[in-house]
Amino acid sequence: MRWWPIIRPASLPCSASRRIEVTLSELYRQTVEAFAAAGLDAPQEDARHLVSGVLGLTLTEMVTEGARVIDAIEMQAVAEAVERRKNREPVYRILGAREFYGLDFLLSLDTLEPRPDTEILVEQCLPFLKRRISETGRARFVDLGTGTGAIAITLLSQCLEAVGVATDISEGALETARGNALINGVADRLSLQQGSWFEAIDGRFDMIVSNPPYIVSDEIAALQPEVRDFDPLAALDGGESGLDAYRAIAAGAGDHLAEGGIVALEIGAEQKVAVARVFTEAGFKLSVAAKDLGGNDRVLIFIGSD
């Protein structure tokens, strides 16, 4: 995958033409040193992705083109990006896009960065969708609180017979999702609706899926600056117990779930018991519990009780 430069550098300083030549390898080394001095947790990884992204290089080209001389415009663009990262702005927000499940997704101020943990949710949903399609020839799902649209768009990209609805309270998030649907070729199968949880939708769905806000309100101030200062608060804050969104989804899911359908959710690492209780009390039964690559509880799937 190739990240094309998103940063637009300003005009060059008059002394740029007299600068000492710097190779790609040297630029990478300097960037690592700058990030390490700033106390970033993963200076080498951040430097690799940021420099490659700004320069429009693949990670392989970062190695094979180490002797390439960096021109003044490129140096300035990287320098501006490095300063932003030193101020704890996440790498992919600086670049303006991030890969998720092999697809590219634009980011905006109104959306979370799609993260690898959420790929576990997609992986757990796909077998059900494919089975539903094999049985009935089609599948319809709703993605609640879609953000960038990463979950819905990825599911549609993997299941060509599926159609989806995606909701969000943020008009800006829906605009971002609309652009991502166009980029990834699924816009004709995705309907975007503005509203909170089930307010904007009608009918029943084979699958209800969501990565809702689940952080306890009092814990947000202690989050890493990359999350606390750059992710939208509405996509983080799960209320006093972190369960507000799950309660809302559980309360409305029965009216919108087709017979034999599932509710698939991403959860916080310590929320399995609490979220399961919310859905059990609403008349659902836990069917699948999956962990992420770090061994933390990450995905729960519920079915209607018999």
From TrEMBL:
Catalytic activity reported: L-glutaminyl-[peptide chain release factor] + S-adenosyl-L-methionine = N(5)-methyl-L-glutaminyl-[peptide chain release factor] + S-adenosyl-L-homocysteine + H(+)
Going by the record, the broad EC class of this enzyme is: transferase
Look up the record and give one Gene Ontology term from the biological process aspect.
methylation
Keyword tRNA-binding assigned:
no
- Keyword Disulfide bond in annotation: no
PROSITE patterns annotated for this entry? N6_MTASE
Q: InterPro entries attached here? A: DNA_methylase_N6_adenine_CS (IPR002052), HemK-like (IPR004556), N5-glutamine_MTase (IPR050320), PrmC_N (IPR040758), RF_methyltr_PrmC (IPR019874), SAM-dependent_MTases_sf (IPR029063), Small_mtfrase_dom (IPR007848)
Q: Domain of life of the organism in this record?
A: Bacteria
Q: Which SUPFAM superfamilies match?
A: S-adenosyl-L-methionine-dependent methyltransferases (SSF53335)
Which keywords belong to this entry? Methyltransferase, S-adenosyl-L-methionine, Transferase
Query: Which Gene3D superfamilies does its entry note?
Result: DNA helicase RuvA subunit, C-terminal domain, Vaccinia Virus protein VP39
Q: Which Pfam families match?
A: MTS (PF05175), PrmC_N (PF17827)
In the UniProt record, the signal sequence range is none
Function of the molecule: Methylates the class 1 translation termination release factors RF1/PrfA and RF2/PrfB on the glutamine residue of the universally conserved GGQ motif.
Q: Would you identify the family this protein belongs to, as annotated?
A: Belongs to the protein N5-glutamine methyltransferase family. PrmC subfamily.
What name does this protein carry?
Release factor glutamine methyltransferase
Query: What lineage does the source organism belong to?
Result: Bacteria, Pseudomonadati, Pseudomonadota, Alphaproteobacteria, Hyphomicrobiales
Q: Which gene encodes it?
A: prmC
